[in-house]
Specification:
The complex is a heterodimer of chains A (114) and B (119). By secondary structure, chain A is an all-beta fold. Chain A has no helices and 11 strands. Classes of the chains: A mainly beta (114), B mainly beta (119).
């Protein structure tokens, strides 16, 4: 079946370093992907999204890369800060009528070491 | 200001005792979603409402029901909670995209979740 998954469950980086979180998806028809950040005890928070007609999108300190050939996307966080410590999920959007159903990947726990 | 509010934040119930979780929103969004998130797992969609139209995911157990009395409120009812239903329950909202066609996307806003413990 269709699935969205992550390569690594945990990632530790030094404060100030860059981090890369990876995600693989299997539905080649997916046209929209979103990265969410979830801190302990909170709901997922939107970080950045990308449409399938793009291969790169940049935000503030974050960049998402999409490789449709291998069905892979990644989230790059530059100059990591302690507040970046969280679980990061990629999500694939499936439309049903006017609703937008999210299929989440497994999640990667990012820890920023001081 | 909170836009998607979930009450209570923590709920303890006994095995088999019905429980209701609530969600309210101030965004006037016409779509509301309920997700289940078990420990160290990703959120999984249970069902959603598009206005008053209820849409159940195929693998959502019958034990889970939902009500949406008006645009602002949506409830998750668990008729007979089992130990396996202990989880974080997340409510989310979005504007619908009806008529806007492929390629449109409206952000989904999540509430803080209700953590359910089943004793």
């Amino acid at each position: 079946g269709e699935s969205v998954g992550l390569h690594l469950p945990t990632l530790s980086v030094q404060e100030g370093d860059n981090s890369i979180i990876n995600c693989a998806y299997s539905n080649s028809a997916s046209d929209y992907f979103i990265w969410y950040k979830q801190e302990s005890g909170k709901g997922p928070q939107f970080i950045i999204d990308i449409r399938s007609n793009m291969d790169k999108r940049q935000g503030q300190r974050v960049t998402v890369l999409l490789n449709k050939t291998v069905k892979h996307l990644s989230l790059q966080i530059a100059a990591t800060q302690p507040g970046d410590s969280a679980v990061y999920f990629c999500a694939e959007m499936n439309r049903q009528g006017g609703a937008q159903k999210l299929v989440f990947g497994q999640g990667t726990r990012l820890t920023i070491n001081p | 200001d909170a836009m998607v509010i979930q009450n209570p934040r923590y709920q303890v119930t006994q095995f088999g005792k019905p429980v209701t979780l609530s969600c309210s929103q101030t965004l006037n969004h016409n779509v509301m979603y309920w997700y289940q998130q078990k420990s160290s797992q990703a959120p999984k969609l249970l069902f959603h409402y598009y206005d008053k139209d209820f849409n159940n995911e195929a693998d959502t157990p019958d034990n889970f029901q939902s009500r949406r009395p008006n645009t602002s409120f949506c409830f998750l009812d668990i008729r007979s909670p089992g130990l396996g239903d202990a989880a974080m329950y997340l409510c989310a909202t979005s504007r619908g995209t009806s008529g806007r066609g492929r390629g449109s996307y409206n952000e989904q806003f999540f509430g803080p979740g209700t953590r359910l413990t089943v004793l």
